[in-house]
Write a structure and sequence with these properties.
There is one protein chain. The chain has 225 residues and is an alpha/beta fold. The protein is 36% helix and 25% strand. The protein has two domains: 1-80 and 157-225, P-loop containing nucleotide triphosphate hydrolases (Rossmann fold, 3-Layer(aba) Sandwich); 90-155, no CATH class. It contains eight helices and ten strands. Helix 3 packs parallel to helix 5. The longest helix has 16 residues, at 170-185. The structure holds adenosine-5'-triphosphate (ATP) and magnesium ion.
Length: 225
């Protein structure tokens, strides 16, 4: 579902943010991406939805070489990918319901379809009772659950999350990771960038580890060896 072949990424500076990164994540896998600050985690996630392009190497998403996608067709790639950020990125002047419905409205879905899909997503994250609140009036953990509902509402094949629990305490983080497990149980491929070693111990999954832009360990290869 996500394949990297000898990927380098260089920003304006000389230093490579990613160096010769190769790995492959199958459909339905749940994988953690870890490494110190500056190791390249966010860069790697951005390459997957083509917010950045690689300097060298090939990236296949759902068997499609995304280097070859024209920019006017990027929406086709991105509609298969749901993204969750550390800082939630909700619209503060819109209700929970409206925040989640936006990706569907943008696609031009019918109002009745939107309602069904939003209520499904809200129920999956356990927030049906908060649908008419504005984000400011719910807790941080709840806001992150809204962001997750927004990411999954359009039935993507892949969920990417960048430090999704960076702003949350342990108890709330566990809740969030349980939601990701539930999403993964529905067949969605999940890739989560995190520094949180405690969570990675609580939820033992395959771990890809970056160090200064190099992939220094891959739990899958180690298990297979
Ligand atoms: N837009 C950019 N322009 C130039 N350099 C960048 C840019 N984004 C990231 N970098 C550099 O690329 C390297 C990798 O950064 P990246 O943000 O991917 O790391 P990270 O693992 O996500 O770190 P953190 O844990 O702090 O979020 C760093 O050296 C960073 O300074
Ligand atoms: Mg980052």
């Amino acid at each position: 579902m996500i394949e990297f072949y000898h990927v380098d990424k260089r920003y304006v500076s000389d230093q490579l943010a990613l160096t010769d990164v190769s790995f492959s994540i199958e459909k339905g896998e749940f994988v953690f991406l870890t490494g110190a600050s500056g190791a390249g985690k966010t860069t790697l996630l951005k390459l997957i939805f083509k917010e950045e392009v690689p300097t060298r190497g090939q990236i296949l998403i759902d068997s499609q070489n995304i280097n070859l996608i024209q920019s006017k067709l990027l929406y086709q790639l991105r509609r298969n990918i749901g993204i969750v950020f550390q800082d939630f990125r909700l619209l503060q002047n819109r209700t929970v319901y409206e925040n989640i419905s936006i990706p569907l409205a943008v696609r031009g879905e019918k109002k009745s379809t939107i309602e069904k899909m939003v209520m499904n997503a809200l129920s999956l994250v356990g927030l049906t009772h908060r649908k008419n609140y504005i984000p400011m009036h719910i807790s941080g953990g709840e806001q992150q659950r809204v962001a997750i509902a927004r990411a999954i509402v359009a039935s993507p094949k892949i969920i990417l999350a960048d430090e999704p629990t960076g702003n949350l305490d342990t108890e709330l983080s566990i809740e969030i990771f349980k939601i990701f497990e539930r999403i993964n149980a529905n067949g969605i491929t999940v890739l989560i960038a995190t520094h949180n070693t405690y969570m990675m111990e609580m939820f033992p999954k395959r771990i890809l580890k970056l160090d200064k832009g190099k992939l220094i360990s891959d739990g899958k290869k180690e298990r297979a060896a």
